[in-house]
Design goal:
It comes from Cohnella candidum. One of its GO terms (molecular function) is exodeoxyribonuclease VII activity. Heterooligomer composed of large and small subunits. By secondary structure, this protein is of the alpha+beta class. It has one domain: Helix Hairpins (Orthogonal Bundle), CATH 1.10.287. The protein has three helices and two strands; from the N terminus they run αααββ. The chain has a two-stranded antiparallel sheet with strand order 1-2. Helix 2 runs antiparallel to helix 3. The longest helix is centred in the middle third of the chain and has 28 residues.
């Protein structure tokens, strides 16, 4: 069954929403943390989770590229691409 899920992910991964991928990823993490998963199943879940993690990262990058901030300048309102500072998401 996990193989079917992996096939669905690779073929439908582009149509899966960020929220759907995150929800599945949270389910996988919860199952792995429970410790009640046989080794072979845990490996398959881990692989699926890594694929979902990459998918979420790619979707976030796409959104980040699309976000534009309105900036008020001397000549009125203008646009500039969204560019977060490294300190915002660093947590240090």
């Amino acid at each position: 069954m996990a193989e079917d899920r992996g096939d669905k992910l690779s073929s439908a991964g582009e149509t899966q929403t960020f929220e759907q991928a995150m929800e599945r990823l949270e389910t996988i993490v919860s199952r792995l943390e429970s410790g009640d998963v046989p080794l072979e199943a845990a490996i398959e879940l881990f692989q699926e989770g890594m694929t979902l993690s990459r998918l979420c990262g790619q979707k976030l990058e796409q959104v980040e590229r699309r976000i534009e901030m309105l900036v008020e300048g001397e000549s009125g309102l203008g646009r500039k691409p969204f560019a977060p500072t490294r300190e915002e998401g660093n947590g240090d």
